[in-house]
Amino acid sequence: MRFLHTSDWHLGRTLHGVDLLDAQRAVLRQIVEQVAQPHDAVPFDAVIVAGDIYDRAVPPVEAVSLFAEVLTELTAHTRVIVTAGNHDSAIRLGFGSELFTDRLHIRTSMSSIGEPVLIGDVAVYPLPYLDPDAARGTLRTGDDPLPRSHQAVMTAAMDLVRADLATRGPSTRSIVVAHAFVVGGSASESERSIVVGGVDHVAASTFDGVDYVALGHLHGAQQPSSASRTLLRYSGSPLRYSFSERGHRKSMTVLDLDESGVRVTEIPFRQPRAMADLTGTIDELLTGPLGGRHADDWVRITVTDRSRPERLFDRLKSRFPHVLQVFHVPAGALQPGEARSPIAERSPRELGADFVSHVTRVPGSAEELDLFEAAYREAGLEVGRA
Question: What angle do CA 206, 209, 211 make, to 5 degrees?
């Protein structure tokens, strides 16, 4: 049996104010192409989307339309299994799911935990994102609610999964779809925190007893480093959503389950636009070779001139049309928080040095401090003459 695992589409997201809908359409089109014409001609039995379909609970109309468009094309070729992530509104995402055909399964309700989607001899258990505050009462087995933690609610959900799996034949293979932060995973800057009670992690061993866990939430494709008898994998987001992801190799995960075990293969996404982090003086950036190499990239630029150049952003945008962020950090800039003696104990020259470094973020030159001292003396003379 073959499955395609993806997650964290975040439809409707922007990148530093730039609308990403066209870029998202371009990468999702690659999923459709892969399902319609697999790279090795082996058809897919289902596509799994492990949460965070949208970037916010109330997505823009254009994002909803794109999701509908992609679902229509995918279900023309195979089944699709979708779960809710922490960015999604479970109620909105799951609206009308009871009316869908057997080609589309959208699981957003905790009441369906432990009920698999059966595809051949594979039982797929979709788990919606389990917010501890909402799930601890629903998933409890006694009179008292579960502890307020991701670990507690995910353990309870997996107990329901294992109980159902125990009723099935020994030849049944199993996949769990979950949206969580598993211990050993590596985060980036673009995931929203899911910390509750000071903890956001779930132990990898929580998922023991199944063949594969299709994870969502972390945007880098990876297998958590924690030890577990089960293969857990984040497919990662199909698009880069922060400059911390500029080195990510974005991919969709192909999962093959057969008698010999579990195998995963990465199919890389072609990114609509590359990302780069550039540093240099304004002259180096405007006249050097960087403009030719990165003119079509999304770029973040740090300018290192001692004084902030005039019309900084406009001048850089003429060279780098897709610049998203510009910072001015002079070379040798002082770090904040350096210990200082009390003001009353500092000389006028020291105070002048503090002022210049605060304004320019670099140490004052001898000429600047000489001028400051001269102005201080002249001010003193004026006060005396008054």
Answer: 110
Sheet of strand 298-303, all strands in order from the earlier edge strand to the far edge: 275-280, 298-303, 323-328
CATH number assigned to the domain comprising residue 101: 3.60.21.10
**Residues whose CB is less than 8 angstroms from the CB of residue 312 and which lie 6 or more positions away in sequence, other chains included:** 282, 303, 326, 328
Per residue in 256-311, pLDDT (tens digit) is 998 888 999 999 999 999 999 999 999 999 998 887 899 999 999 999 998 899 99
- Cβ contact 316:291 at 8 Å: no
The model's pLDDT over 95-129, given as tens digits with 9 standing for 90+, comes to 877 767 789 999 999 999 999 999 999 999 999 99
Same domain, 58 and 194: yes
Considering all CA atoms of the chain, what is the largest pairwise distance in Å, rounded to the nearest integer?
Answer: 101
Does 120 lie in the same domain as 17?
Answer: yes
What is the total count of domains within the chain?
3
User: The domain containing residue 358 runs over which residues?
Assistant: 343-385
Q: Please tell me the pTM assigned to this model.
A: 0.83
Spatial distance between the Cα atoms of 82 and 104, rounded to a whole number of angstroms: 8
- Shared domain for 250 and 285, answered yes or no, is no
Q: How many CB atoms lie within 10 A of CB 209?
A: 16
Six-digit token pair at 312? Answer: 């900084």
Amino acid at 75: T
Asked whether residue 334 is assigned to any structural domain, the reply reads no
